Amino acid sequence: MKHLISVDDMPVYHIENIICLADDYKNNLRYGEIDRVLKNKILLTDFYAPSTRTRFSFEAAMNYLGGSVIGSENASEFSSVAKGESLYDNFRVISGYCDVIVGRFIHEGDAKIAADASLVPLINGGDGSGEHPTQALLDYFTIKEYHPTERNLVVTFLGDNLRGRTVHSLAKLLAIVKNVKTINFISHKKMTIPSHICEFLNDRGVYAELYCGMEHAIIKKTDVLYVTRTQTERDGINLSENEIKKYHMTQDLMNMLPENSIVLHPLPRNEELPSSLDNNPRAKWFEQAWNGLYVRMAILKYLCHPY
Ligand code: CP
Fold first, then answer.
1. What are phi and psi of 207, to 5 degrees?
2. Is 53 among the catalytic positions?
3. Helix, coil or strand: residue 180
4. Phi and psi at residue 282, to the nearest 5°
5. Residues 73-118: tens digit of each pLDDT
6. What is the pLDDT of residues 116-126, one digit of tens each?
């Protein structure tokens, strides 16, 4: 695996190796020593769209592993792309200054252009409405912490399934590792999961069930509820507040979930996930975000020092 653009780039053994390594890092950061295995390596973070978790957790991960970090948090304004340089040229050039790059991109498909240009491993930190493979890995890591052995989990995505790149990547990853039979997608009909994701799931023997209204019967049998915000910064879908509100997380929905279920959200959140739910025992969204550190340490080690 040279680049990490899509979860399609990862066979099951890569996924499970990264998860296993992340688990070691989580234990070692708490109780032991970290081998500074990336000493003398440089991570370059080139972000064309805003980020809190992805950029900071990658930067912290590289620091823990002994490497250095250079980068731009606002490359649209501060790189020479602002002067008309192509994305290809930009990534070709910067790949000569570092050992690994994490990029975040405004448009779907830009991560592939960057990877084609880059001479060093390129990690997609999110490309428009496309994919966010490192988020999918940390989501899967969190799911495995609470459901380590189950093979027939009921996973339900609630929210903007059309433009939520984390939804696309996690759904595909769950189909690759085959610990689900059916994935439920609940959303307004204008925000339904793209057909190519359903085809990807069906080709791997996973049924995609689509619901365009809140389905309490589905919530009641869900092991992992994955909530996402409406991606209003992307192409316009005009929905009234009342229409969107039908897909918000509530205390009532929390109460309907089975006892051992968990609720995840990639964050950032808006009104769809009220902070009044933060202390519910099923609420795992902050743990999920913190797991990003260990998983991204594992990804960097895997790509930069694979032995
Ligand atoms: N979940 C996620 O990608 O968060 P950021 O946009 O803050 O990186």
1. -85, 135
2. yes
3. strand
4. -85, -10
5. 999 999 999 999 999 999 999 999 999 999 999 999 999 999 999 9
6. 999 999 999 99
> How many beta carbons lie within 10 A of that of residue 259, not counting itself?
6
- Could you tell me the two tokens for 10? 């990862």
Distance CA(12)–CA(182), nearest Å, equals: 19
Q: How far is the CA of 67 from the centre of ligand 1 (A)?
A: 22
- 168 flagged as catalytic: no
Alpha helices in the chain (DSSP H): 12-31, 53-64, 75-78, 87-94, 110-117, 133-146, 165-177, 195-203, 216-219, 241-245, 251-256, 285-304
Q: Ligand 1 centroid vs 86 CA: distance in angstroms?
A: 25
Q: Sheet of 42-47: strands edge to edge?
A: 68-72, 42-47, 100-105, 122-127
Specify the pTM: 0.96
Report the atom number in ligand 1 closest to the C-alpha of 125: 3
Nearest-atom number in ligand 1 for the CA of 289 is 1
- Please, are residues 182 and 211 in contact by the beta-carbon 8 Å criterion? no
Catalytic residue among 14, 104, 265, 282: 104
d(CA 131, CA 14) in angstroms, rounded, equals 18
44, 94 Cβ separation under 8 angstroms = yes
Q: Name which residue sits closest to atom 6 of ligand 1, judged by CA.
A: 51
CB-based contact 103:46 (threshold 8 Å): yes
Tokens of 157: 């995505």
- Answer whether 134's CB lies under 8 Å from 296's CB: yes
Residues with Cβ < 8 Å from 52, sequence gap 6 or more?
Answer: 267, 268
Q: Is the pLDDT of residue 139 over 80?
A: yes
